[in-house]
Structure prediction request, 222 residues.
Amino acid sequence: MTAYYPMMVKLSGKRCMVVGGGTVAERKVAALLEGGADDVIVVAPRVTDNLDAWTAAGRIALRRKEYEHTDSEGAFLLIAATNDRRLNSGIAAYADRQGRLVNTADLGDAGSFVTPSVVRRGALVIAVTTGGASPALTALLKRRLAGQYGPAYEPFVERLHALRRRVLAEVDDAELRAAVLRLAAEELPAEDGQGTIGGGGTAADAIEQWMIRLLQAAERGR
Ligand SMILES: C[C@@]1(CC(=O)O)C2=NC(=C\c3[nH]c(c(CCC(=O)O)c3CC(=O)O)Cc3[nH]c(c(CC(=O)O)c3CCC(=O)O)/C=C3\N/C(=C\2)[C@@H](CCC(=O)O)[C@]3(C)CC(=O)O)/[C@H]1CCC(=O)O
Ligand SMILES: NC(=O)c1ccc[n+]([C@@H]2O[C@H](COP(=O)([O-])OP(=O)(O)OC[C@H]3O[C@@H](n4cnc5c(N)ncnc54)[C@H](O)[C@@H]3O)[C@@H](O)[C@H]2O)c1
Prediction:
């Protein structure tokens, strides 16, 4: 099996091109948009109703035509998702030579990256892949993780972020700082992720009180 290096890529301002307009292409486009892409071009003679609607709404641009290599000029990233295997691998080979990141929806390791399945809870992103060994297992694990790490994680991560900024600014002792941040992370939402922790949101005085409580607990633990 091919080995893969996982990373989180910033896509804002980068041209992303999806070749093909079927249900697989639609899923890839949705994932790009969720991932912050703001310059997505689809090249395909026929597209799904959703891709048509997203074009009409100005969320993506559509070139309603058969793909040619000149289309890929300026693309930072390409996804080949047509139902033509030879075309997909041709796109991958050409894009690779041009130094562009490329994914093929049919033959995973013909491209330079594969797309994971993703659970998003605000800044928390859980990505799963089997590198093409079993997309069905990937989808199953994603459903399980989505249940285990529920919606309560989004506000929890926001609170942790607010706390961390405060602690970095106010606690000089590196060991104490690490202890406070570790204790804070341990106040996980309930196992199903549906509950809330301590309430309070990200208001400055709520974060302040949380920090004081954690500092006391960390001091006791020394
Ligand atoms: C994660 C996800 C992301 C996404 O696509 O957005 C994704 N596949 C998903 C689902 C899924 N795909 C397929 C099934 C049917 C069950 C089955 O066949 O097992 C299901 C399950 C379902 O639909 O429930 C069929 C399938 N997939 C690939 C082939 C071609 C081949 O293997 O040759 C075929 C056969 C096509 C055919 O029949 O011709 C190839 C790839 N699919 C990948 C990603 C990459 C490796 C990911 C990994 O291994 O972890 C890779 C290599 C390339 C790539 O696309 O990057 C998304 C989960 C969405 C979610 O739920 O979040
Ligand atoms: N990665 C995955 O998760 C996954 C899942 C299922 C299937 N697949 C693979 O993905 C491929 C696409 O699946 P689908 O269900 O979206 O297919 P589909 O038949 O619904 O759509 C194919 C699309 O490709 C376009 N196309 C064909 N020739 C083209 C060309 N020359 N230039 C530009 N566009 C062209 C068509 O217009 C159409 O929009 C299949 O080959 C399948 O093997 C991948």
In short: Helices lie at 23-34, 49-56, 85-97, 135-148, 153-170, 174-185, 204-220. The first strand starts at residue 16 and ends at 19. The two ends are 47 Å apart (CA to CA).
